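Sharing in case it's useful to others searching the archive later.

Someone asked me privately for the predicted structure of D-aminoacyl-tRNA deacylase, so I'm posting the question and my answer publicly. Question first, with the sequence:
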Amino acid sequence: MKALIQRVSKAEVEVDGQITGAINQGLLVFIGIEKNDEQAQVNKMIKKILAYRVFYDADEKMNLSVKDVEGELLLVSQFTLAADTNSGTRPGFSTAKVPAEAKELYEYFLSSISQQYAQIQSGVFGADMQVSLTNDGPVTFLLSC
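And my answer, the predicted structure tokens:
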């Protein structure tokens, strides 16, 4: 499982002209679900995302998590993060979980993280989404579990 997290001052996801999720200060999280991922990887990733220290403290050090700053989370499924890019100039997707299973795991992710943290917004699994953001920093990290 991979998660590309970006510290943002604002972000939103639009599907078919409708905004499905919008946040102010917080993290935009793109989630890539790989072939062998199960609930254990989801649980580990949720723990990591909620605790990852990417916000500045009073000493201007990245010592605060999204929970510490009471920021928001915008979660977006992105199967291209699970792509195999090791050879050639065209990504392969044999490393991504099949869509039906990935959707089930993504829904588990949303349900589980919502039980641990209330300030959650999301995109729509499998939809053609338009994502707008203002990256704060820029600060971007690729997390793996």
